[in-house]
TrEMBL record:
Origin superkingdom: Eukaryota
PANTHER family attached to this UniProt entry: AGAP008170-PA (PTHR45712), INSULIN-LIKE GROWTH FACTOR-BINDING PROTEIN COMPLEX ACID LABILE SUBUNIT (PTHR45712:SF22)
Keyword terms of this UniProt record: Leucine-rich repeat, Repeat
Name under which the protein is recorded: Uncharacterized protein
Gene3D superfamilies assigned: Ribonuclease Inhibitor
């Protein structure tokens, strides 16, 4: 599936596309109230285009995919509280400095070797689960 089913109301608050064998992800329309997006257990290799939902999204679950990087333009999700990138193919720590509200970050089972100290100083994380160093 690369196109969202038609008829989804623009004021939807939660979308679950987990276990859909997605290899590429569609661009999300301007969902005015989307807060929770679940893309776990797919075959995504690229981070989804979230520009139209960036200001409302609070939970993003993209675990168990094949994502190798988080493009800097998508690292600014100002309302994001929880980000799950567990079990992907990340080689380096993504630039998340624009995610000031981020409270939970899950990065285990990736190929990340270090987390920049400046991120840890600037973030308001209550919980981080990262690869063992």
């Amino acid at each position: 599936m690369t196109i969202l089913p038609s008829g989804i109301p623009l004021n939807v608050s939660r979308i679950n596309l987990s276990n859909d064998d997605l290899e590429t992800c569609c661009t999300f329309p301007d969902f005015t109230s989307l807060m929770d997006l679940n893309l776990n257990e797919n075959k995504l290799v690229q981070f989804p285009n979230l520009t139209k939902v960036a200001r409302t999204l609070t939970m993003l679950h993209i675990a168990n995919n094949r994502i190798r990087s988080v493009p800097e333009e998508y690292a600014i999700l100002p309302s994001l509280l929880e980000l799950d990138l567990t079990c992907n193919e990340l080689q380096q720590f993504p630039n998340l400095t624009g995610m000031r509200s981020l409270g939970t970050l899950m990065l285990q089972k990736n190929n990340i070797s270090w987390i920049p100290g400046e991120f840890l100083k600037s973030a308001d994380l209550a919980y981080i689960c990262a690869p063992r160093q």
